Amino acid sequence: MELTFELVAFLMAVAFLAGAVDAIAGGGGLLTLPALLAAGASPAAALGTNKLQSTFGVATAVITFARKGRIDLRRFGGPAIAAFLGSVGGAFVLTRIDPEFLSGLIPALLIAMVIYYSLKPNLSDEDRHVRARPVLLLAVALVIGFYDGFFGPGTGSFLTTALIAAFGLGTVNAIAHTKLLNFASNLASLVVLLAAGEVLIVPGLAMAVASVAGGYVGAHSALRFGGKAVRPLLIVMCLALTAKLLADPANPLTAAILEWWAGASR
């Protein structure tokens, strides 16, 4: 990758927008990963560099929510550690096997989330009382953390949906704690990819500065507008990620659909 002022400025602009989107609904990688690939980074380096910049952006969102009293470390400190350890495990497994088999399953899960958010009457900003055991929260954080280290797309959306549907959190509190857990899993992935030499430091740090600003703006927007603004953005990001995954002809689900269509049209 040949770094020029114009290229760095472009990557920073994308990182700012991605940081804002990520702080509200997740899915900022939909913007930054294609930008890094278009700039000439290898797939592995694009993934590592994206983890660098997004870690800073998510950290900013966490700090912003914490200052507003939206982070409960007593309840979510353990799950954050579980997400970190899960992500380390996922990144380790990633170095041993091909994660492509997951790419056919994820669009179906994302579509299910779109249906959930579309049919749910309202997304309240108030927490509900749900008698879910703390060990279940640890398990969810561990599993989704593993997924983030192993594959990644949709992690923020999965976490937010789980915290709202299964654990009774209000929309803004769910987003705030999603950022905490996502920060832990991002940090773990970043450590592994740094050790593997798959991070472009200079463009990554430049993007991190912009991502911090975007994360600040996005977190304040979520606090100000609450669930009314979050639900449509969650739906849009889930649909966009689904479309991106299914646009790849190599995706197992896409390949199966194309094969079925070819057989049906004969």
TrEMBL record:
Keyword annotations from UniProtKB, A to Z: Cell membrane, Membrane, Transmembrane, Transmembrane helix, Transport
What is its subcellular localisation?
Answer: Cell membrane
* Record's bilayer topology term: Multi-pass membrane protein
Coiled-coil zones: none
Gene Ontology, cellular component aspect: plasma membrane
Family statement: Belongs to the 4-toluene sulfonate uptake permease (TSUP) (TC 2.A.102) family.
Looking up PANTHER family in the UniProt record yields: MEMBRANE TRANSPORTER PROTEIN YFCA-RELATED, TRANSMEMBRANE PROTEIN YFCA
Protein name in UniProt: Probable membrane transporter protein
Output the lineage of the source organism: Bacteria, Pseudomonadati, Pseudomonadota, Alphaproteobacteria, Sphingomonadales
